[in-house]
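User: Quick one: structure for sequence A, then sequence B.

Assistant: Sequence A:
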Amino acid sequence: MNNRLFKGISFFAITSIASLFSPSGFTTDINKLKSQRTLFTTIEKKLKTKKDRLYHKSLKQLKGYPLLPYLHSLNLINKLNKLSQKDIDSHITTWPSMPSNKRLQQKWLIFLAKKKRWADYLTAFERSNIRSSKYQCLYGVSQYKEGNKKIAWKKATTLWLVGHSQNKACNPLFQAWKTEKQLSQQLIFQRFWLTIAKGNIKLAKYIDKSISDNDLKKQTQLFWRIHNKPQRLTSTKILNKTQEKHRLIYLYGIKKLARKNITQATNLWLADREAYPFSLKETTKLDKWLAIRLAKNFHDDASQYIVRIDPSFKYPKVTRWRIRLALINRDWSSVLSLSEQLPEKDMEKNRWRYWRAVAINHIKKQQGKLNTNKSILTQDIFTDLSQERDFYGFLVADISNTPFNMNSAKDTVDTLPLQKLASKFDAFERIQEWLYHQRFYKAQSELNQLKPFLSSKERKMVAYLAQQWNWHHQAILTAAKESLWNDLQLRFPSPLSNIFAKYSKKQEIDLFWVMSIARQESAFNPRARSHAGAKGLMQLMPATAKQTAHNYKIKYRKESDLFRPKVNIALGTAHLSKLISKFETNKVFATAAYNAGASRVNSWLKKRGHLPLDIWIETIPYDETRQYVQNVLAFQVIYKSLNNQNPKMLSTKEAAMMSLAAFSPRPVTIEEVSRRGTNEAP
């Protein structure tokens, strides 16, 4: 198998083991456990409001409860003013593997800094493993306050030379450093360029205010001239490209200019790159950036410019986009010849095997050498591809109307090692309790802390423990991390199937499409959060959720409702229903819109909606969205197969829009074929 995402199928025959991993495995009295769980929740809430009476009163009742050390840690945090370093050390020595130790150490360090106990801070810092910038800053302050200026200034230099804003805890250290005239103009100048390299223009402007040296100021002023008007690069007198900083300004300016006028920027770069002493790294980076930008923007002359940028096919990613541009033009000869320039490892991937085969068939057809009445399955490359379990394998199988191959291989596993592993580490007991309390991030922290102590075999077994505990998100992640590609039961679970079925039916959309979206979006983590702000199982943005709730009269009060599976699925299926309607029942376009937004998909359709559907997918300019669409389509096949449904990846209408449709034995009506390319959104 060439695509890791879908490698092979085998699943462990695990029977009659649920009891081995129930909480009764570590607490014999189930009634006592229920009481402890209830008591834990109550005490935790009390301790978070600094009320410890119930905690002290209930210690005897909580004896043996796996999460008791966590409550001990909370209690210590509440009385830091009564503690010594010895108390902190004693707690950590008693429970060394507790993730909550980190928070305890952080709170202790902050307490010591606030109390200006600088010597104690240094001791606590050295004994901890806390090394984030905030605590590094306070370490520098502590060294300064204790009179260790040499160490303090060394730490200040390290913390200063970054391309981003530092934690405000650094301010006293930097101020003392500056007051004692240790912050040189050269160090300020260095940081200016670090911020530019990171794209932090606002911070760079602030840093520049501190540069007073005339020679250094001239260089930063030159940067701002190019930043404000990159067209100035066309003047041969403005920059001396033999100087390092001038080259940095030039490289920055070319990118800035390209965002306004990529033709002008590319022509300028092609004229200058050989004439001046740019390093190989500088040249390579800008070559690839310009070429990919030209391709992804579908510039009219992209292919011609890319030939000049990379005439000898040095950059595989650029070559891949050259093939995609040839696909847009349906220049099959170029698709074939360009694919031969790919590295061998790329040529072996199913993506490019597929497009080479499609190109060969179209070339033969154009030359009149292809019998279109003959099934494409008679051709070895398509026969081989149809046996693969990935998007391209499923695509060939679907178009050619042949059975999907799940590459099944069944293994067994002894239940005893799983039971033994579950009882080997205290962390597994705590994980089960955090899962019971629906505290998934706490459970994840426990596992992250434990993993370095597990053997390779044990790390694989974690996936099956997670499966038994219905921690599907972790089972999926661990299966991928440990290359357990072959167990589809493990990798494609169906949690909350009744809720998914209910709302899919209500919105009249395919259940397995919805399940595939949720699997791709969050791996079934109900508490999932993205950097962009999407939340829950189906990763809805709050604004989308609010609008959807209003349009479909779904009860939704606040953003935290998105972490409730029922609400999230109700909103997610409603949003999918809207998209599938908007894009005339085309799941490909609707899936792309769920990931990238309907407006972007509309713009892509306006530019390339006339293309065969597989080419349209292949030329989606967002790498993430392209892979997203392919994953979701393939996941549908797997889910349908696992649920004994007829596993079709494409509707008849969608199949008729593919490049291979002309060679397909799958029956397609004349009306459907005539509708190719007319699925542009209204």
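Sequence B:
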Amino acid sequence: MTTLRNSISGAALTSVLVLTAVTPALADSARAAEPLAPQATKAQKLSKMKSVTAESAASQDRWFAALGKRNTPSIKKYRFTWDTDSCSWAPDKLPGGYDLKFPCWRHDFGYRNYKRIIGAPAFRRDHKKRVDKAFLHDMNRVCDKFVWADPFTPAQRKELKANCKKTAKKYYSTVRSFN
């Protein structure tokens, strides 16, 4: 009986080992069967970059849409860099519930991808000012957001909003001063 029990346990263990070894191979073959989207040309990348880094609510909405689809073939083909250090050394969360994380992320996106695609000198000459203006626009949109069930009095909210806009202007002035 003990021998039979050991044989069954050994067979079960062998089955588990075989299945765990085969499953990744099957997953890799399924991944390999996915068609790869062709890589976008430099001109296509620059066109997409311009559309998602402009100074407008529509451009910001297009960037958010691309961010949400960044792992799909339609966006992966651009091979954009999506990493961010948020607002670098500056706080991205301000008193009053204002969060500058996404404006900082989109700003990093513009800087990192333009520099990678066309180089730092061409970025500074042709695109930096627009990307920086979009950064200010995005931060001001955050500062202008209406807060539902606001825990602050109207006077407090007015002061918090003014401080948010002042901080946005400081962040903008700082990035404009860098080459």
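Residues 6 and 12 are 10 Å apart (CA to CA). The beta strands are 93-94, 98-99.

User: Thanks, that's what I needed.
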